[in-house]
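I am still getting used to backbone structure tokens and would like to learn alongside you. Please make up or recall a protein chain and show it to me in full. Would you write everything just below, so we can both look at the same thing?
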Amino acid sequence: VLGQPLLRLQHVLIIHGLGLETRHLVLASVLLHFVNAGLLFGVVQQLGFTRRVAFFSGLTYLTLSAHFHAVFWPVAMQHLLAVTTILAVLHLYLETEKRIQTGHRRWRLILMATLGIWGVASLQRGPMMLSALILTHLWFDSKNAKDRLVRFDRWLPGFALLMIYPILLLTFSGDVIIND
């Protein structure tokens, strides 16, 4: 349970599905990199930028040389996985907020999907960036203080989900250290 359970699950699924060869991990990393570029394209568009700006944002992410270590070094897949979950939650969060503002009837379904992926994101190290991004958006995008509180209350379960894994990690890692 300790460590990075989401990363371990991903490695088990890839190894079980594709085999133990390194090229399969590299292929999975490359595909995940393309998914991240697509998610970034969607998030940038949802923030109100033009398709051109969103396209160049995704293209810049796709061709950024700093990411090549995570694509071609299979052990660094946790970086890509963290970016994937952060971008997926941001994409769904922005979609949920848009549906609520437009009065769409099925916004609760997207909210539940967002909270589900947010729960998956909580199984990684470093998901607190996600909370900071959503809190910043809530702060600056709200019309007034009442709207800000309503929106914060709506997303409170997501913030609580991010605390479950660190609390479990601190609780059980101390127990493991003491018993060893």
Notes: The chain has a mean pLDDT of 81.
